[in-house]
Amino acid sequence: MKKYRIRVGLDVDDTLYECNSYAVSIINSRHPDEEPIKVEDIKTWGGTDRRSEERIKLYSDPEFVRTQPITEGAQEFVRKLSEIADVFFITAVPACCMSARAERLIKDFPFIPAENIIMGTRKDVISLDIMLDDGAHNISSSRAAYPVLFRKPWNTGLSGLLSVNSYDDFMHFCEMVRNSFSEKFPYLKNGGVLCLVGPSGSSKTEIASGLTEIEGFEKPLTSTTRPKRKKEQSDAYRFINEAQFIKEMKAGSYIETTVYSGYHFGTSDKDISPIVARGGVAVIPIDICGAITLKNLYRQKAMLVFTRRERPDAIKSIISRDIDIDDKTRRIMSLDFEYRNSEVCDVEVAVGDDTQSVVNKIVNLVKGNI
User: Fold this and answer.
1) Cβ proximity of 338 and 307 under 8 Å
2) Per-residue buried b or exposed e for 289-300, using 16+ beta carbons within 10 Å of the residue's own CB
3) Long-range CB contacts (within 8 A, 24+) of 45-54
């Protein structure tokens, strides 16, 4: 990867400044006798949720833009990022709000040159090394080498995108890209985390099952809101409802959470750390968002393995699954994004019909025999 000062673009609304949550708080104050709107109710950026028209109208109000609360930790995050990258603010606001937006950015981030503020709705024409944005539509059309989605309630509909949950995870990802040639290969001989990352239909679950039959490899229990499949064992996941998951997530029960095909997944450190502490390898089939979080936490003791299965075979596997048609559609639509994630994994393995050979290869990778 490039060994020069990387160029990183940052979206502004709901990345550096509170936007949807601020709008929701204003709307709730205007209608005190109605049931409050929750940020979790916003399922898409535009949205068809209750009072969405009133919410969206606020985004064209200069006073709203001028008074948006800055996200906790945003200034320190940008300051640290500017030490390793050229940072650009990529923001889309109506013409009437441009002055207010520029004034806030210059005031709150004086260490970023004013000429690095880029305003406009055509984010798809801006070429960068890395881009962070909460708008899935902006990420899917981005020309950045690595477009990264900032996970929010309204962008969970599209799976497979390279994504992060926090500033810390994004900083670590930028460091991964910047140092990719000099990083040492992960060392798991004394325990660690093995993240199986790959497109839907690439046999991650079968590979994980095969690995856990080998001494020293264990699968920590992951919580999910996904319903149990017909032939699935009851202990394959900890199956809970969405309300319980969100409650536990807000209470800090999980070290990583992600959303895949509309369902929440979360892993708790109390399920992983004992495995690593006794010298074992925690095997986790996971999407790239969760994998980056675990890589951030475990560093050289985390290995990201991309399981590449040819696209026609992956589609056949998705079609044959006992899941509803909408879920199948989402998974197939996400394949192109998921294949791109191989670039940020430590190693790639080809998956065919013989998953046992893949299991053997991964075991040799972990033991250092390849």
Assistant:
1) no
2) bbbbbbbbbbee
3) 45/134, 45/135, 45/136, 45/137, 45/154, 45/155, 47/154, 51/27, 54/27, 54/30
Q: Would you list the DSSP string of 148-192?
A: EEE--GGG-SS-SS-EESSHHHHHHHHHHHHTTTTPPPP--TT-E
Distance separating alpha carbons of residues 223 and 264, to the nearest angstrom:
8
Per residue in 58-78, pLDDT (tens digit) is 999 999 999 999 999 999 999
Q: Report the sign of the C-alpha dihedral through residues 165, 168, 169, 173, in that order.
A: positive
Q: What is the pLDDT of residue 369?
A: 57
pLDDT tens for 187-233 read 998 999 999 999 889 999 899 999 999 999 999 988 999 888 777 77
Query: Three-state SS for 101?
Result: helix
Is residue 362 a contact partner of residue 194, using CB atoms and an 8 Å limit?
Answer: yes
Collapsed DSSP state (helix, strand, coil) of residue 244? helix
Could you tell me the two tokens for 354? 């013989």
Helices (H), the chain: 20-30, 52-58, 62-67, 74-82, 98-108, 136-140, 167-178, 204-211, 242-250, 269-277, 288-298, 311-320, 325-340, 355-367
The type of residue at 231 is K
Contacts of 273 (CB under 8 A, 6+ apart): none
The answer to whether the CB of 344 falls within 8 A of the CB of 304 is yes
The structure tokens listed for 27 are 């709307």
What's the Cα-to-Cα distance from 101 to each of 30, 50, 70, 134, 187, rounded to whole Å? 24, 27, 12, 18, 46
Task: Give the pLDDT band (50/70/90) at residue 182.
Answer: low
**Amino acid (one-letter) located at 295:** K
Strand ranges across the sheet with 6-10: 117-119, 85-91, 6-10, 130-133, 146-150, 163-164
* SS3 state of residue 47: coil
Q: What angle do the packed helices 311-320 and 325-340 form, to 10 degrees?
A: 160
**Cα–Cα distances in Å, from 255 out to 78, 223, 297, 320?**
23, 12, 9, 33
